[in-house]
Amino acid sequence: MDKEMRQPLIVGNWKMNGGLSDSIRLVTNLKNQLNEKNQVEVVVAPPFTSLHSVSIAISETKIRLAGQNMFWEESGAYTGEISGLFLKESGCDFVILGHSERRQFFKESDEQINLKVQAACKSELIPILCIGEKLKERQAKETLNVVEKQLKIGLKDLAIHDFETIVIAYEPVWAIGTGETPQTEQIEEVHHFIRGWLKRYFDAPTANMTRLLYGGSVQPENAASLMQIDEVDGLLVGGASLHTEDFIKIIHFEENR
Ligand code: 13P
Predict the structure, then answer these.
(1) pTM greater than 0.90 (yes/no)
(2) 97, 178, 214, 237: which to mutate for ligand 1, most atoms within 8 A of CB?
(3) Closest-CA residue to 42 (of 60, 50, 30)
(4) CATH code for position 125
(5) What is the domain count for the chain?
């Protein structure tokens, strides 16, 4: 299966922005402006407290819902945590895991992220596993080693059928929220490496089904060219997903070529 066979996926990660009323406003605007004939799968990831209301707002649409994080246990004395079951019950089909902000500010390790990835699959959520190098690591030519370690530990002990849906997002940390995007060749190199690694670690048919996203300063102006890069199957969008007009232009990238 090659790129044409994988449905493009565009995910809006709203991060910790806006409460319930902002979420409803954003998703209503999105719903109203989205061309439903569009072939792109669209996912939004609002804050936890907006999930249920947003799921009701999108119930008659093709827009799908993601959590921004979850804990690996199903329930118990873990004050402040949210389990995969709760996300599922709130209407989520996806969950973003291992985002660089979780790694940086909450010190999440690859081992913890792996427990979350496993728990997400068990809860029938599709994990969007985020990986990517810091600027220092790129400058030290460590990018591929960093990415390999994140993949190797992050995807440990997964059943092969979990890979039928799993999504991997390459987000270079230095490109997140900075307005700086890597050169085409840099993205291509890492995406090729990820696909190759998946082929070696699992098998070619499985690796060919996995959608690989790029994230980091995606804007309406660069969405079409990013989507043209070999092995880029979709985009993980932060800031621009908070402005419906921009997010819509990104989703309708084919019209803006
Ligand atoms: P920006 O699009 O704001 O750079 O954020 C990217 C991101 O972190 C998406 O998860």
Answers:
(1) yes
(2) 237
(3) 30
(4) 3.20.20.70
(5) 1
